[in-house]
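Inverse folding, one chain.
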């Protein structure tokens, strides 16, 4: 997808010069990008932390850093440079939006796996049942064996996992249909358990399944793969994180 975006934006310099002069820079950039790739959904264009650049999130894809003329761009991650090395830059505006999302999410729309004892932290996980690392994360909800050693799972460490649906191949894909089945089943936890263990589950559909809503939401806040862990402070951890390391990140 990234290569397609780059190829699609080549040759758009002429378009940038043709737009109305009374447009703001942000409006002009969004128009040029949308004209170049009408099949891609772009988020809001805002100023980037590097002077002279603007940034826009591709829904379900990378962040684009675009110049004011909208005829050149960079796609990918940005890093800060400090005494302790390089750190992945996260836009404070996106972190704030994620914090607000965490507060607004309703338990009825997520499939939850809570500890038997005290819940010390809640982590939302965008998941796909046909994702190897998603299965690995799910298999470590409770105590598990690793290299001959018994280790505590997420729930053993007081971490509640709340799943959101993110079919990587799209809502209307086989993965999307499986996730819909999980959310529409009477016993959502059992259905998700079976699907993540590659066991058959009779297909079920319902009018109020949240798969499409979760998928769109994930794309808007920078999810482009699974698992994606949304932490209580609004930061996003892309990819699988072992239970003990996640507990350390959460300060447990």
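Residues assigned per position:
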């Amino acid at each position: 997808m990234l290569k397609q975006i780059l190829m699609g934006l080549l040759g758009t310099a002429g378009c940038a010069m043709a737009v109305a002069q009374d447009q703001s820079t942000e409006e002009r950039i969004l128009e040029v990008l949308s004209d170049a790739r009408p099949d891609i959904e772009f988020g809001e264009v805002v100023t980037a932390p590097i002077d002279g650049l603007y940034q826009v999130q591709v829904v379900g894809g990378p962040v684009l850093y675009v110049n004011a003329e909208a005829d050149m761009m960079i796609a990918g991650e940005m890093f800060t440079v400090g005494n302790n090395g390089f750190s992945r830059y996260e836009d404070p505006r996106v972190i704030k939006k994620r914090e607000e999302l965490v507060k607004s999410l309703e338990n009825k729309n997520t499939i939850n796996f809570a500890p038997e004892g005290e819940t010390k932290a809640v982590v939302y996980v965008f998941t796909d049942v046909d994702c190897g690392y998603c299965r690995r994360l799910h298999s470590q909800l409770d105590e598990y064996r690793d290299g001959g050693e018994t280790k505590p799972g997420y729930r053993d460490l007081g971490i509640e996992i709340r799943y959101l649906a993110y079919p990587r191949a799209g809502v209307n894909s086989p993965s999307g249909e499986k996730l819909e089945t999980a959310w529409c089943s009477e016993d959502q936890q059992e259905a998700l358990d079976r699907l993540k263990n590659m066991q058959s589950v009779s297909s079920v559909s319902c009018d109020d399944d949240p798969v499409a809503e979760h998928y769109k939401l994930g794309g808007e806040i920078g999810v482009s793969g699974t698992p994606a862990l949304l932490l209580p402070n609004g930061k996003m951890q892309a990819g699988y994180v072992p239970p003990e390391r996640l507990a350390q990140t959460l300060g447990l």
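The longest helix spans residues 92-104. Residues 162 and 209 are 16 Å apart (CA to CA).
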